Description:
It contains twelve helices and twelve strands. By secondary structure, it is α/β, with parallel strands linked by helices. It has a six-stranded mixed beta sheet, with helices on both faces. It has a three-stranded antiparallel beta sheet with strand order 2-1-3, with no helix packed on it. Strands 6-7-8 form a three-stranded parallel beta sheet, sandwiched between helices. It binds pyridoxal-5'-phosphate. The site of pyridoxal-5'-phosphate (PLP) has 18 residues, from helix 2, helix 7 and helix 11.
Amino acid sequence: MTAQKDAAYINPRTGALWPTSEPLWNAPDDGKYINLTPGAGLTPDDIDRNERSFWRYGVAVRLPQPPEITLGAGWTPLLPAAWNGTAVHMKAEYLMTSGSFKDRGTAVMLNYLKQVGITSIFEDSSGNAGASVATYSAALGLDCRIMVPAAAPAAKKIQMAAMGAEVISIEGSRDDVAEAALAEAATCFYASHNYQPHFLEGTKTLAFELWEQCGFQAPDCVVAPLGYGSNIMGCHIGFAELLAAGQIETMPRIYAVQAANCAPYHAAFESGGNDPVSITPQPTIADGIASAVPLRLHEVLSAVRETDGAIVAVPEDEIVAALRQFAGLGFFVEPTSGTAGAGLTRLLDSGAIKPNENVAVVLTGSGLKAVEKIGTALGLNDA
Length: 383
Ligand SMILES: Cc1ncc(COP(=O)(O)O)c(C=O)c1O
């Protein structure tokens, strides 16, 4: 197979198409988020087995030219572990260069934007996407400005600044930051990882990697935290490409986990409909997914419903317990990733996940990004 370069932008609501030779972050006809047309997936023979990053699947990652900078994103370990006596696999996405799963999406989005002439990156983030975008901007020589909540973990903000990004702290919630960024988008190119679809072109490689690491099979299910959905959607897109290419027989069930204190997708899922359900968010230790206003709501709901998965909401004490449990197994992850463990416990207890199933749990962010918060939660700040 030769590299697939035939992606076009598509508005999933109107079906309108645009070429990817000009950068877009949203759909010109209705201003909402935009997608890429579906990719063709790949076969085991298409994999570049000498490449120890997700670019081993480069044939199926649609970019105008080969990437200038990869920073080695992807090809993270899938590690066996026992969770409450059940054998599962932990996908250690926090082992990427910037310390979170976001590097898959950023590596594709920023290489693409540079190739089509963007020199200045403006983004908003709860912290990890910004840290990742700042990292790749530094490596690619792009100017970078990131809006973040003033209360974002200091480690994430310092990480961005160390990479040379201008960090703009906004008072208020994650949704206030997103609103401020949208206002700013009128004046510059908004390299939003939640709108710009090349980000999902990168996060879809999670699915390719799980498929390869499971012996060219899909796991029975995937459990991952859900904020705006870049990981959940990437997983769904990648496995859907593999299904369409005849490489897997069924989609894995996708289980998305939200903090109960801020769970708008869960509320919409439970309503049985596709419309947003207004929630009153409460503070959560899971700062990476503390977004009360959903973006790709319909798509995320379809991804979990079509695969027979679910959206689970977990309370704060269970997130902290899962964080402790992860650490006890050797996985030092950030509180946001703890939600996946708390969700897994609930899904095992309810029987939704059976003990003999092949389960992949996505560990999205490094605990090193939230040391003080973890210290407080686990009562270790005097350690
Ligand atoms: C550590 C971590 N896990 C999960 C997520 C959720 O990702 P998404 O918003 O794409 O659903 C985030 C988002 O920033 C994150 O930082």
